[in-house]
Amino acid sequence: MNYKEQLKNNVLPFWIKHGIDRKNGGIFTCVDEKGELYGTDKSVWFQGRALWTFSKAYNTVERNPEYLEAAKSIYAFLNRCSDADGRMYFTVTEDGRGIQKRRYYFSETFAAIGCAEYYRASGERETLLAARKYFDIAYECFTGVRLNEPKFNRDTYDYKALSPVMIMLSTAQTMRAVDVEQKDRYARIAKECLDEILHGGFLTDHALLETYPRTDSWSIRRREESSIRGIRWKPRGSSCWRGFLRTIGKRSLWVKRSLISPCLSDGIGSTAGSLRLPMRWGSLPFSWNGI
Question: In sequence order, which residues have a C-beta less than 8 Å from that of residue 129 and are 6 or more positions away?
Fold first, then answer.
């Protein structure tokens, strides 16, 4: 398959034609394969991701003005998607009124990378300032400066998850590449996240993971090459690669095996059960709210 042609001739034209809201701005989420809407509520995660997608396509695939116009529409709509406290909603109505707000700060991280990439495309400084704003809010949630209701009762289950660290690493990497004025700050945050991922108990020889952990592995191996020299991604005598645990427990040392695959040569396996492994607890004081 020619992925570039598929993107240019199928994927992006489909969403420009059927997804972009010509009346209110932004992009619809609930679109079937025929291009028909089956709901008008909009995912805020999707707004940030789509903003990044169209901006990235404009910057790297071709300077198609339709891509830039779609990104402009989505960027303008993002301004409606925050509550009075500055936190973004998870779901909004078609005209941007809040429906659902969650503890997760992924809406802010996706908005940050979307605005950062759009800044590259448009050159408008206000879009860089918007990227900084969304990043700062996400980082405040990540570090616990902004407190959110935890998902688990920590007196019963003291878990920490990979996904909050992974998304902050990826977001900091994007901001580091775009915002040269604050490059050192983002580099420091990326290093903190990388240290936690590599030394906080997530890296294991015993399991391979799917989805988020594979994305995390890509972010580390492709973007932080100088920091991971010396790590054996395929241990001696093993037929499989090392992986990352999705969720680990501090007190019992039990690992929640959601999305964990047994260590097979093809990396494919079941996703049920639990696994007990030796681990060293990391020291990064990130918020537990994202698990």
Answer: none
